[in-house]
Amino acid sequence: MLTMAGLAASAGSLVLISHLFPVSIWAMNFAMMFALALGIDYTVFLLASAKEHYERTGDPKEAMVGALAHSGRVIFAAAGVMVAVFFTFALSGPLPPKEMGIVLGVAVLLDAALVRLVLLPVILRLTGRAAWHTPAWLDRVLPQISFSHG
Fold first, then answer.
1. Model-level pTM?
2. Least crowded by CB within 10 Å, which of 2, 40, 86, 133?
């Protein structure tokens, strides 16, 4: 659901950008696929850290605070590097790299800063222990994997 929100924000930026100059359909498709892949990566970083903190403390609030403190900087730094690289493409000569640079830069910025570092932690904080609950029938089927290192 949050990935779809990130993609919707990216699509909205595409509409805004397409009013400035025409954006080709391949650029839109590529941007959506790339934003989806990066969004999933950032989610895995954040949720793995949150699960590790939750296993250690058993407190969902502490898990989210610890996850943001632990991996939030990494996510923001990685997104910042990607945004800088993509916006650098916007300075190049031909139109296809320009449109890809702008579209991907805006998509990654919105997805990482708004969706992964604001919306996801808020939703996990509001759902509390329910976010980490596994039904008994599924718990019997799944392998027991621990995320904590201690």
1. 0.78
2. 133
